[in-house]
Write a structure and sequence with these properties.
Length: 154
């Protein structure tokens, strides 16, 4: 993951605008050939990581007409895209070189281990791990330049 970009501190909470009009964009790019369950797991893990890293993207919760409480969701939205594994890895490397992006990833190692400390130990021994998914959050133009030609995950 990259260091937090300077724009995060000045992120203007604009939940009143359509996501396409926001100056920031959040995408996840999944290995299109992974089984759906692994894709869903990777998306959930990346969302948790990004939410912890950049809590300003989470909107306030709400109450429905029956009085039930609902937790806040990301007001910036998140687009989930698909790419071959090689593109996911290349995109992760390119995104990591962009200082204004918040980059989180799901290395294949993470889904092969059941103990978090074992994941960290194996990650520390692996120079270029293969990636199942990568998440990019940052200025819209930069995110679109890197991912604009990728299709939606279907």
């Amino acid at each position: 993951m990259t260091m937090l970009a300077g724009w995060i501190d000045s992120l203007d909470h604009r939940s009143d605008l359509p996501t396409r009009e926001l100056p920031v964009k959040w995408v996840m790019v999944m290995d299109r050939d992974l089984p759906r369950g692994l894709q869903a797991n990777a998306a959930a893990c990346l969302a948790a990581s990004v939410g912890r890293t950049v809590p300003a993207i989470l909107g306030s919760g709400g109450t429905d007409a029956a009085g039930h409480q609902h937790a806040g969701l990301p007001w910036i939205g998140c687009t989930v895209l698909a790419a071959p594994a090689a593109i996911v890895s290349r995109l992760r490397a390119e995104a990591a070189a962009e200082p204004e992006l918040v980059v989180t990833d799901m290395a294949a190692i993470a889904q092969r281990t059941n103990v978090y400390d074992e994941y960290l130990a194996e990650l520390a021994r692996t120079e270029e791990p293969p990636y199942y998914a990568v998440s990019l959050l940052g200025p819209r133009a930069t995110v679109e330049r890197l991912t604009g030609r990728l299709p939606l995950l279907r």
